[in-house]
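My current task is to audit a protein record that another person submitted. Thanks in advance; the entry in question is below:
***
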Amino acid sequence: MIVSDEVWAILAPSTEPYEDISRDDLESGLSSGQFVMFKSERSVAITCSYGSALRVGLAGGDLDELLDMEKTICSYARENGFTSVEIIGRPGWERVLQGYNRIAVLLKKELRNGLH
């Protein structure tokens, strides 16, 4: 099992009511390589490719850890040929993340060499 009870407990709140993804869906996406999981001590983010963007579709946990994780995700995206990182989430994310523009409830950050 890729998605431990601990990971699911962190992510489950972000699947309601905005997302329609089950634990089985998450397992399947991670097993197939469609999704990539980023995990720290108390936080988890799930990404997938969407054209030339790496999209964060689910995230939960500690805000400070998630902000640090965003830098890791941007580095991963750049190293893997993505030109931007997108975050689908509640509007509150735009208050704490720098460099993203609000596009409905989708935040998008263009990646430049050396910049997060």
Remarks:
- The CA atoms of residues 89 and 105 lie 6 Å apart.
- The longest helix spans residues 63-79.
